[in-house]
Amino acid sequence: MITNTVYRKLLENMAEAVWMGDENEKTVYANPKFCKLVGYSLEEMIGKQSYIFWDEESAKKVKNTNTSKRKKGESSSYTWNLLSKSWEKISVMLNWTPLPDGGTIGIMTDLRELKEKESIYRQLVENMAEAVWMGDENEKTVYANPKFCKLVGYSLEEMIGKQSYIFWDEESAKKVKNTNTSKRKKGESSSYTWNLLSKSWEKISVMLNWTPLPDGGTIGIMTDLRELKEKEENEKILYNAVQYSTDAIIMCNPKWEITSWNKGAQIIFWHKNTVIWKNISSLFDKEDISEILRSDEVVNKYELIWKHKNKSKLDISVTQTHIFDIHKTEIASYLLICRDITNHRKIELEMESKYKKIREVYKSIGVIKRQSDYIFELLEMSESYHYDNQSIGDFIVTSIIMLTHVDGCELRILDKKEDKLDMISHFWFSQDWDGKKRITLKWSLAEQAYKNRKPLKIIDILKEPKYQTPALARKHGMTSLLLIPLISWGDLIWVISLYTKASKKLEIFENEFIEKYAKVIQLVLANSI
């Protein structure tokens, strides 16, 4: 088990700011990084509620979260503003986790440091296939990438300071304003299909993903839908020509008995005149059509499934209206207009799938950013004389835990004279694990991985005869192991071991980033330890 001294050392040397409070949100601990951010000493903060360390808007959100997710034992993540002793607002990425005793621990990443890597991200944004626009809290342009400039026909210099509304057609501009006064002010993201308006007055249909920024501004990522729309329109014309030369028009009496229908109905429902005077439920399932049968009002585009006796199915859109008698007091007939939308539904699902993939790409960009941050910080530590070998080892283990969400991790170095692997750092294990501080390399899994020159994946370590401490693994609930040998000049020098419990045993083997990150660690350790 890691001692309290090691835990404290880990917390006090973390790149993230850490704050811990009791069930009443009163401060019980804060690490040096947090103290530095807010400008208070730990002694000044002890007993103070967390709300004084946030700006007014963020404090309200913290209180709201405490009465919802926190009381339910749910973790959460937000981008909010700390308020320092000198009244400076500091934008941070906050990860809140409730503690068993009713308290809370918050881990915060200073987002200001990301600006140091702005050139890397700017290159990424400027070479994106999607158009990117960014505005301040008043919707005035502060940035647009080359793709957006090309779409609207303006240079970046022409756009700076101009409100976003001039880049939309009249109808879309109204929707943008409406969204800004609803979802955007509440900090909610949104996605729409609207029309940009270019400098030459050309309308450009785009798929827009809006996301509010911590400072009150907005970032919009747009995908040009013109080619997709053109293809969809051509398909729609062909589809209508083949499938909708006529719609099915069915007339029913007040008892819902079919009195007449047209040739389009015969084509869609594969009948001739055999359904005349039969109840409409003979075409549709009675439970499915019950809403139409009960309604005396117009029903628009009610969707039903039509099942043929040969088990084939069609998606049918039904619009129902009624015709009154000459006195306009009683319903004389019901009119149903039915349209086969089977292929249309398929196209909609395909479009949703494409948009989902686009959103997944945006999500993966955030993961890549976090991975890059840890790589950059690890390289910076290796070049700095402020960090000793233990600190670098602790950082490596902690970063792997944060990036992979594994249940345990350890880093070992080889003592060549005694052929032993000594523990440098480990995390998330109890005191019993200290009995594994030194293990024999001979006949071990580490030796096997070194001989194979590649990571060793063990799905069930309890069934692996070479695994040396199955009792400890069983006590900690560990089942799977990924063992990565770090080799320098052909010799085994270090070993990284990643453990997971049964519920997550496959995730560790499916993370391609792990082995690439291990190569970076190998280079850093070669220069530092």
Can you describe this structure?
- This protein has 529 residues and is α+β, with helices and mostly antiparallel strands.
- It contains 17 helices and 21 strands.
- Strand 4 and strand 5 (104-110) form a beta hairpin.
- Helix 12 packs antiparallel against helix 13 (389-404) and helix 12 packs parallel to helix 17 (513-528).
- The mean pLDDT is 80.
Structural class: alpha+beta
Question: Which CATH class of the largest domain is shown?
Answer: Alpha Beta
Average pLDDT across residues?
Answer: 80
Strand elements, count = 21
Terminal-residue CA separation: 24 Å
Q: What count of domains describes the coordinates? A: 4
CATH domain fold name of the largest domain: Beta-Lactamase
User: How much is the radius of gyration in Å?
Assistant: 32 Å
Superfamily at the CATH H level of the largest domain? GAF domain
